[in-house]
Design goal:
Elements lengths: L10 E4 L11 E6 L7 E5 L6 E5 L1 H4 L9 H7 L8 E7 L9 E2 L5 E4 L4 E4 L11 E2 L3
Parallel strand pairs: 1-8
Antiparallel strand pairs: 1-2, 2-3, 3-4, 4-5, 5-6, 5-7, 6-9, 7-8
Length: about 130
Amino acid sequence: MTLAPVATLPLLGLVTPLPGFPEFRDYVLVTADGDGLLFWLQSLDAGGPRFLVVPPARYFPDYTPVVPPAALADLGLDDVSDAQVYCLVTVPAEGPAAATANLRAPLVVNPANWRATQVVLSDGRHPIRRPLRR
């Protein structure tokens, strides 16, 4: 019997923990749909949190977050164009059709070293809850 190869998932190390989850810093991104449209940001700690995230460019092509230089430096990035950006998704009790993405506080990842941080954007042009419809 031949076993399928096991995909290695990069370990994301958060330079600053997510708000409300100070004890959790190590996560992996796991595809939730197989198409690269939805991912789980899964804590590696037993009983740790799991968040649904999306790459915003697939849903919001006009999304251009201005990441502060200090956050880029913390991640070892020179420019946000070198980053992978994800937005946390909220699925309310009404169901997936009412899901929203938080464009105000994206998760910014440096794919060269897999350091990540959630950045709260100060400019206010991006909403905390934008309907997640393509």
